[in-house]
Design brief:
The chain is mostly helical. The protein has one domain: Winged helix-like DNA-binding domain superfamily/Winged helix DNA-binding domain (Arc Repressor Mutant, subunit A), CATH 1.10.10. 60% of the residues lie in helices and 6% in strands. It has 7 helices and 2 strands; from the N terminus they run H-H-H-H-H-E-E-H-H. It has a two-stranded antiparallel ribbon. Helix 2 packs across helix 6 and helix 6 crosses helix 7. The chain is globular. The mean pLDDT is 88.
């Protein structure tokens, strides 16, 4: 039973089924599974201090350095939230602050040697999480799924949908 063209339901069970099987819910569930797997692999490498929210930093860390405002925009979170996450990475030695040579009012976040090691382990963790998905649905299906997701991502960039201010994730 697809949610397509459905605006009604006949029972609480049917409503619950539609809630649990719509694409948004399934994508969220997959995201939670994938993130949990990757985080588990990082923890196996003794990165016990890394939390789910830290993925925002890891996805936006640039080897050449970046400003917190750019990282926050790319992650779709507030500058204040990103600053707090970045400060945790600084305290653990993964990132370091420096002055922005182009604008003395800004600071740049630079990746340290330890940060590069974390990123390397992070890439291995992502690869292992992808292998976990492939074990469930198959390697060919995993690559097909990746292509479908990329197709949706590219179409979204072509036809942007108006964002609501209450959206919890807005990634560039």
């Amino acid at each position: 039973m697809s949610i397509k063209n459905r605006t009604d339901f006949n029972s609480e069970n049917e409503l619950e089924y539609l809630r649990q099987t719509n694409l948004g819910r399934l994508i969220d569930d997959l995201h939670f599974f994938f993130e949990s797997q990757a985080l588990g692999y990082l923890r196996e490498e003794n990165y016990l201090m890394i939390k789910s929210a830290d993925a925002h930093v890891m996805r936006t860390m640039r080897l050449e350095g970046s400003r917190v405002t750019d990282m926050a925009r790319q992650a779709g979170i507030s500058k204040q939230a990103m600053s707090k996450l970045v400060q945790g990475f600084v305290e653990h030695g993964f990132l370091a602050w420096s002055n922005d040579p182009k604008d003395k009012r800004n600071r740049i976040v630079n990746v340290t040697k330890e940060g590069r090691e974390l990123l390397s382990c992070g890439l291995k963790a992502l690869a292992n999480a992808e292998k976990d998905v492939a074990e469930i649905i198959g390697e060919t299906e995993t690559e097909q799924f990746r292509e479908l997701l990329l197709k949706i991502k590219q179409a979204r960039n072509i036809r942007p949908v108006t964002q609501n201010t209450f959206d919890r994730r807005r990634r560039a």
